[in-house]
Amino acid sequence: MKAKRLGAVACAVFAGLVLTTSPRAQDPSAPSQVSAPQLSQGQLDQMVAPIALYPDPLLGEVVMAAGYPTEVVDADRWLEDTDHAALRGDDLSAALDQVSWDPSVKSLVQFPQVLHMMDAQLDWTESLGEAYIADPPGFMDAIQRLRRQAQAAGKLRSNAQEVVTDENGQIVIEPANTQTVYVPDYEPNVVYGAWADPDYPPYDFANDFDACSYDDFGYCWFGVGIYAPFWGWDRWDWAGRRIDIDRDRYAGLNHGRQPIGGGVWMHDPAHRQGVPYQSPAIRDRMHGPSARPDTALTARGYPSDDGARIRTIDGAPPEYESYGQGDDARMEAERGAFSRGSMSNDGPRGGFGGSHGGGRGHR
User: What separation in angstroms does the CA of 207 have from each of 51, 82, 116, 193?
Assistant: First the structure.
């Protein structure tokens, strides 16, 4: 069942993020938690259901990239150019070095099906990114809760595609092969078994992949041949409730700029590119209640043309005026996308190696 109440439910979800918090300097050694949002387990579980069973490194890339919706849209449109979609290895790396996207977004270009899902479900993508920014521990608890649920239902175990292990009570999912990553496209209502909160059924983005056949466990797999520089630079520290990153590899994908949190991932507003935050608490944390975001951009050495694309948000009503900003993100992408004029909107979206076809064209 495709998620039908996404907008209404996500509005309710982020109503819980309207909490008072004073802007302060972030501690690079700690997760970037804004405040404890009033999100129920059902709301978080519903949100993370489509990706909770992804391999850990891919899950990290998705969660990080979700905070940068304009760049997600840019990257998905970039792949609509058949010349871009055909790039592999060093040629792909050289082409991506010409754009200023966050390394998480660049890394997802290897997974065009996932990137396209995030673009197609942009409101969910924004909500997902802010849910992690606001409350990393709660977000990670939801991931682990659903993994345990799938395991209890007999639907999560090691196989030819992935290795599932229990590390001190935390379920870790890693690819079984270092050269090819298999991404699971699954039916949440099957793999998770009985759902605990009927008011918040799991999101199921049924039509964002091509059709394929499901196995007896409710999964369809598509394989992606991995280009090493774009893979494995992030690691979930489940016990520490954070995402660790290899800062040197990150900087190598980020034009030499080091991550703002050092070895612990922190959301970087410089890559937000004009899309206002859904939560006023997050907005104030990132920029201050009246700060101009472009000031932070230029202070960290980003070019002024990026800063010019940041819109001021002073005077916005103190509600969720920015919820459902998928159209805004796409507008920003249309204004500033790399080499937009050379792209073809009619070309097929290509995969990067291996067999693929993860999808729910038919039930």
Answer: 15, 22, 11, 21
Nearest to 208 by CA among 126, 123, 118, 128: 118
Looking up tokens 């038919």 gives: 362
Reported as half-sphere exposure (CB side, CA atoms, 13 A), residue 118 has a value of: 35
Cα separation, 187 vs 123, in Å, equals 20
Question: What pLDDT is attached to residue 216?
Answer: 83
Token readout for 16 is 């819980």
Model pTM?
0.75
pLDDT > 50? residue 131: yes
Tell me the pLDDT tens digit for each residue of 169-206.
999 999 999 899 999 999 899 999 999 899 999 998 87
Cβ-Cβ contacts under 8 Å for 102 (sequence gap 6 or more): 64, 65, 68, 71, 254, 268, 271
- SS3 for the chain is CCCCCHHHHHHHHHHCCCCCCCCCCCCCCCCCCCCCCCCCHHHHHHHHCCCCCCCHHHHHHHHHHCCCHHHHHHHHHHCCCHHHHCCCHHHHHHHHCCCCCCHHHHHHCCCHHHHHHHHHCHHHHHHHHHHHHHCHHHHHHHHHHHHHHHHHCCCCCCCCCEEEEEECCEEEEEECCCCEEEEEEECHHHHCCCCCCCCCCCCCCCCCCCCCCCCCCCEEEEEEECCHHHCCCEEEECCCCEEEECHHHHHHHCCCCCCCCCCECCCCHHHCCCCCCCCHHHHHHHHCCCCCHHHHHHHCCCCHHHHHCCCCCCCCCCCCCCCCCHHHHHHHHHHHCCCHHHCCCCCCCCCCCCCCCCCCCCC
Q: What is the pLDDT of residues 250-288, one digit of tens each?
A: 999 999 999 999 999 999 998 998 889 988 888 888 876
- Which are the contacts of 73, defined by CB distance < 8 A and separation ≥ 6? 119, 122, 329, 330, 332, 333, 337
Q: Are 106 and 230 in contact (CB under 8 A)?
A: yes
Candidates 3, 233, 221; CA nearest to 123 is: 3
> What is the band of 309 on the pLDDT scale with cuts at 50, 70, 90?
very low
